[in-house]
Amino acid sequence: MDARRQIVETYTRLAANATAQPTLHDVAEAAGVTLESIRAEFQSPDEVVLLGLEEMLWMIRGSNMPRRLDEGIRPTSAARAICDDILGQVDSNRTIALVAVRFHRLITMDAIGSAIHHRCAAYFAAAPDFRKMDQAFLGTANVYVAQGLAGVVVSWVAGEISPDQSEVAAHMAELLPSWLSDPRTIADARRSGEEGS
């Protein structure tokens, strides 16, 4: 095992049962290495936990909505499947996710939001109706969707909402705006607004 992974595993083990966030000094003592050797790799515990989340975030980033739509899956079913995928990746990395949310909540939510943002951007780029739309609008829409879903994921990990993964995935999918499934509704809403002014 390389030194960086050893540091991540030691930090995760210490933090999993801790009431206060472990320091890099605590990690050095537990791992039997010098603090200087840890500081050569990481400047803070935030950097340690982000490396621990790296594989999970990479898997969340992978975009499969376009492929599912190409396979003929209905958009609402594809959205539900993607929400299941996101929660499944988090659940597969439950120990580090719990540590990350308990002691690094804001950076964890930002990292998950960035991963979902990447996935959403790939969907916008792949769907013909979105490719024709104003990119500034899609940038705003992406932030809205990604940060909203990230907030739900973090609350789920923290135990603030239902612990049932399937139920939360269903809620996430139901909360997604309808225009994600049918972007034409945006143009329809804009036309209605212009006619009403």
Short descriptors:
mainly alpha, 197 residues, single chain
Q: Helix share of residues?
A: over 70%
Spans of 5+ residues with little confidence (pLDDT < 50)? Answer: none
Radius of gyration: 20 Å
For the record, give the distance between the C-alpha atoms at the N and C termini, rounded to a whole number: 65 Å
Shape: elongated
Strand content: under 5%
Give the number of helices: 12
Query: Helix and strand string, N-terminal first?
Result: HHHHHHHHHHHH
What is the mean pLDDT? 88
Structure classification? mainly alpha
Largest sheet: none
What's the count of strands? 0
What features would you describe in this structure?
This protein has 197 residues and is mainly α. 77% of the residues lie in helices and 0% in strands. The protein has twelve helices and no strands. It starts with a helix and ends with a helix. The model has no long low-confidence stretch (mean pLDDT 88).
Which SSEs are present, and which pair or pack?
Layout: H1 3-16, H2 24-31, H3 35-39, H4 45-61, H5 65-70, H6 75-92, H7 94-103, H8 105-126, H9 128-131, H10 135-157, H11 165-175, H12 184-196
Short recap of the structure:
By secondary structure, the chain is an all-alpha fold. 77% of the residues lie in helices and 0% in strands.
